Amino acid sequence: MKPIKIALFASGTGSNAETIIRYFEHHSAVEIVFVLSNKSHAPIVEKAKSLGVSLIICNNQQVEDESYLVNLCKSQDIDYIILAGFLRKIPDTLIAFYPEKIINIHPSLLPKFGGAGMYGKFVHEAVIAAHEKETGISIHYVSEEFDSGRIIAQFSVPIQIDDTVEAIQEKVHQLEHQHFAPTIEREILDM
Ligand code: GAR
Question: Which whole-number Å values give the CA distances from 177 to 120, 146, 166, in the listed order?
Fold first, then answer.
């Protein structure tokens, strides 16, 4: 049977992308076809190379282009796109071509602390400023509006009174590394 083909989009450190690549490395039903990064010097670039995964570097103009990403994913026969710390808005043309086939991870319990400008440390700073008692992660489908597509799964973690942004980021990363890949697997294989 043909494996389900995944494209991973990432812009930064790529710790989630790396975890996903390792998780599916010898999987019988899922194949990571390529990693796409819009940042040529991001750590994910070296990680993808050392993990032996095909790498595509593009620029922000190509990301915004109506047809570049659609043509690329079509030409590689991609079934699902996973955003693992990809910090550009996905063009509507790609969302229309892949309805409920683009999955994002967001470092908060959506709908709290989502939307434009809410990414990485900015999310954790806002969580601390709001005196939240817990935070977490949301794994969700991508729709035309930032961080508002259907939620697939959420996982939470308590916040201690003296937690710094870095401490929260670490807790959130641990949740992400534990849950993102198995959640993708369950969702796309209908397990
Ligand atoms: C992750 O925490 C992810 O949730 C967040 O960027 C980080 C990337 O880390 N994504 C967003 O904020 C999207 N709005 P990584 O590069 O180490 O995987």
Answer: 15, 22, 16
Express each pLDDT in 81-139 by its tens digit.
999 999 999 999 999 999 999 999 999 999 999 999 999 999 999 999 999 999 999 99
The answer on 92 and 120 residing in a single domain is: no
The closest residue, in CA terms, to atom 1 on ligand 1 is 85
* Atom of ligand 1 minimally distant from the CA of 146: 14
Residue nearest to atom 12 of ligand 1 (CA): 119
pTM: 0.97
Q: Which of 16, 22, 169, 178 to mutate to test the pocket of ligand 1 (most atoms within 8 A of CB)?
A: 16
Domain boundary among 41, 70, 98: 98
Same domain, 64 and 122: no
188 and 150 assigned to the same domain: yes
Q: Which residues line ligand 1 (CB under 6 A)?
A: 10, 12-17, 84-85, 105-107, 119-120, 123, 172-173, 176
CA distances, 2 to each of 28, 29, 79, 87 (Å): 9, 7, 11, 30
The domain total for the chain is: 2
Provide the CATH number for the domain around residue 133.
Answer: 3.40.50.170
